[in-house]
Amino acid sequence: MKRPHWPSWMPIDPYIVLLLGTVGLAALFPARGTGADVASGASTAAIAFLFFLYGARLSTREALDGLRHWRLHTAVLACTFVVFPVLGTGARALVPALLTHPLYQGLLFLTLVPSTIQSSIAFTSIARGNVPAAICAGSFSSLAGIVLTPLLAAALLGGSGGGFSADSLVKIVLQLLVPFLAGQLARRWIGAFVARHKKVLGLVDRGSILLVVYTAFSEGMTQGMWHQVSPARLAALLAVEAVLLAVMLALTWYGGKALGFGRADRIAIQFAGSKKSLASGLPMASVLFGAHASLAVLPLMLFHQMQLMVCAVIAKRRARDPEEAPGISAAHLVQGQPQHSVLR
Known about the structure:
By secondary structure, the chain is mostly helical. Helix content is 73%, strand content 0%.
């Protein structure tokens, strides 16, 4: 079976174009008054339904089967929820010389969200790495992020004026954790239906996130968010994120070698441990930051596209390595797995 195709040129995720279009729509026609209240209520319902679907899709059995490779998953989780946040905290020294405080908060939040699932799997497969490990690592990270991201945000952003408060933990439980657990419980009855209609439900996923983005940026426009982001600050943010990505790509690759992992496992660690999930991060930011969510998600949106472009190049180069990976088939990528956009 052939491996999943990925363009040889640097990819622009089509969904990023839709996200940018949604930001433009919010800039030209922001929701105000009653319209804002309706959009906010719809966004809240969409987030809850989104995480219900996440719960219904995640195979608990497959996640538990992957526990036998616990060293690799521990390494990915440590990169995602320890190393990334440490680097994000260290970036506080860049305020105000390079970053404004709101942009720094968005950068710090970016370092707290879980890893991707589908793009990690796709890149790992292209590079001839350990695809089953990438599947499990991404699933573990997403599951852990529902709990760890809010707790880390409470610890690192709670007193920084970023809109985060103790009430946000309650919102997280009600809007994210409860629907996710409900989806897990309902999986035995609706799992087959979700698998049969994964394309349609994938559109629901992406539509829900577009609604969240529109609501967040509408609130930002009414508060004059673009007056807080100059072109020079935006360029500085991109430079900082490029350094952050480069550091994590190097740490995951050479750190995996230092820990004694083989080539296939190191590839899975690099692609799962160096990326952040836009699909999980956007709804969480909306819940955690409320009216401040627009600036909070801007660094994450930029980082997402940057990681896709860079990792596409790395995956192609890894695929040309002379050493062969042991028996990894692309069938592992698609068999029994929900098909998402590389957005995740």
